[in-house]
Every structure is written in C-alpha cells, then in structure tokens.
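Researcher: We're reviewing a set of sequences before deciding which ones to prioritize for further study. For each one, I'd like a predicted 3D structure that I can look through quickly. This is TlpA family protein disulfide reductase. If possible, include the structure in token form so it fits the rest of the review sheet.
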Amino acid sequence: MSLETMRPNPTWDAASYEDTVDTLAAHRDELTYKVWGGDWCKDCRALLPDFAAALEAAEIPDDRIEEIAVDQDKQGPGVDEYGIEYIPTIVVETDEGEEVIRFVEEETVPPAVWLAQELEAELEAETA
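Model: Here's the predicted structure for TlpA family protein disulfide reductase, in token form for your review sheet.
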C-alpha cells in the first residue's frame, strides 16, 4: 500500500538543496529507502512530501523506495522486524539488506537533508 504523504511536494525547491540532491543521486543505484508512515500522522504529512520530492529530484528509481503504511497503533509490515516505534521512520539499506542509516521523526532537520549528511559521514568513515 502506498502512502499519499509520499506524493512529492510540487513546491519543493531542489536548487535550494543541491548538496542533498547530489548526495542522494550519487547513490541512487546502490541504496534502498524503506519508509514507514501513515497518512493520518501529522509528522508524516509535514515531512514526507518534501522527502519524496528530494528522492524525485535525485532520480531515485521507484523500485528503490518502499512505502510501508502503518495503522494508528503503528502496526504494519516490518514494524517488529525493524523496531519501528515512531513515524515517519526511514531506513536506508544496501542491496545486501544491511542498514546504513535511519531517520526517525524527532531529528531536527528535514529527512532528506539529515539522511544526506549522515550518508556522507558514513561513507567518509568507511574510506578513512
């Protein structure tokens, strides 16, 4: 089931987030984004449309984005397996299913920005 909240925000300005888009685009063929959310959730409605717009601007293939709807009790596919407590939660994985980074609703910057920053930090740590 797809999430209405993952419909890209048409007013999101990719040019204002060039570094974020570039980082996401650089890894478009090697990472998968698993997004847990609910269309009923105010945090999801506030955060996910811009995140979806960033993924669209970075030309992330649809088959690398998995939208997972949860009910108002935050129950749904993969919730227990991934330890999902808050939504939105975005888990970024390698093709081997290894979790690279995770965005959870309480971060202080938008999901795309936070994920791009953490992704850069993670990759720098691997090459150091």
